[in-house]
Specification:
Structural class: alpha+beta
Number of domains: 2
Radius of gyration: 24 Å
Shape: elongated
Number of helices: 9
CATH architecture of the largest domain: 3-Layer(aba) Sandwich
CATH class of the largest domain: Alpha Beta
Order of helices and strands: EEEHEEEHHHEHEHEEHHEHEEEEEEE
Strand content: 25-35%
Helix content: 25-40%
Distance between the termini: 34 Å
Strand order of the largest sheet: 6-7-8-3-9-10
């Protein structure tokens, strides 16, 4: 069942056009992530869906029937989770969640609150003040308060930005399960590519005011339509045309060949592609080599490797092995230009 449908959404602030003709759908139980550089209008879309932003063109529907652009009747079906949690510091955990249930009688309110405290693993914290909680606990209270009034849609604006790496990973898994279990339509705004790939059913990447590509994480990662998409979702190297010719790969002038830094192997086979090593960086469980392709106008690229044994006798040069199946041909320029 269709949850949220955004049709030809456009908005400008003064004379500056922010977004043009942005369209996408979110099914019930589906997580759609909006990715893009800072200032591209990601959060503006969420604010418009939540009726916090007006003066836009286009239409936004909830469950195919409610035109949010002209009515506030559907606001109760939309939950908004802010980056800073937006909790009330003068209320304790239980009271923060209760705040969303003011229309219920006391018996029903307590039943709902007890269920949420248990579901969100907050029972033992019910009487604590907000400042007594960790960042992850505050995030759970924020989400519980939104889920309390049983919205059909949940909007997530950089929800993990204030969490450390370990807590962020745990919260992502937990929140994804909650969204799926409750069958919510969720829209996530983030600048973190890995977060988007791991959380999403579909991703919309914004470039030049429009959606450059929309699809599943696997589709976008494995079949990027442009150099911009390939660069945005992965760390890639753009390969010289002469190297592509030597590998018998034919491309047009409007396209470019790219390969992930993960898909180039370092070898001691002198029959492979020779490269001069400019720098070696230790990154924990792998190394990054900054190298120059000697036979291809000294084109500089990055190579990721877990082993540098082949460099023990000579730390000034190496040889690179490229598997043709890992080279992707993408459009050089954005489709939105």
């Amino acid at each position: 069942m269709l949850g949220i449908s955004v049709k030809n959404f456009s908005i400008a602030f003064g004379e500056t056009q922010i977004l043009e003709n942005v369209s996408f759908d979110v099914e019930a139980g589906e997580i759609v992530t909006i990715l893009g550089p800072s200032g591209c209008g990601k959060s503006t879309i969420l604010r418009a869906i939540a009726s916090l932003q007006d003066n836009y063109k286009g239409e936004i529907y909830l469950n195919e029937t409610c035109l949010i652009n002209n009515s506030n009747e559907c606001n109760k079906d939309i939950g908004y989770i802010f980056q800073d949690y937006a909790l009330f510091p003068h209320l304790n955990v239980k009271e923060n969640i209760e705040f969303a249930l003011y229309r219920l009688n006391n018996i029903e309110k307590q039943r709902r609150v007890d269920k949420l405290l248990k579901q969100f693993d907050l029972t033992e914290h019910r009487h604590k003040q907000i400042h007594e909680l960790s960042g992850g606990q505050q995030q759970r209270v924020s989400i519980a308060r939104v889920v309390a009034y049983e919205p059909k849609v949940i909007l997530l604006d950089e929800p993990f930005a204030n969490l450390d790496t370990i807590l962020r990973n745990k919260t992502k898994v937990w929140l994804k399960k909650i969204i799926k279990d409750l069958g919510l339509s969720a829209i996530l705004v983030t600048h973190d590519q890995k977060e988007a790939l791991s959380m999403s059913d579909k991703i919309a990447i914004i470039n030049n005011k429009r959606i450059e590509q929309f699809g599943t994480p696997k589709e976008l990662f494995e079949k990027p339509k442009s150099l911009y998409i390939a660069n945005f979702l992965n760390r890639i190297n753009e390969l010289p045309n002469k190297l592509l010719e030597d590998l018998e790969i034919v491309i047009s002038n409007e396209n470019v060949g790219v390969i992930s830094i993960d898909n180039i192997k370092v070898t001691n086979n002198i029959n492979m592609i020779k490269a001069s090593i400019l720098d070696i960086s230790f990154c924990g469980d792998y190394y990054e080599l900054h190298v120059s392709l000697d036979d291809y106008d000294k084109k500089e690229i990055i190579v990721k490797t877990s082993c540098i044994d082949c460099l023990e006798n000579n730390d000034k040069e190496c040889f690179l092995d490229l598997d043709l199946k890992n080279i992707k041909i993408v459009r050089r320029e954005s489709f939105n230009k």
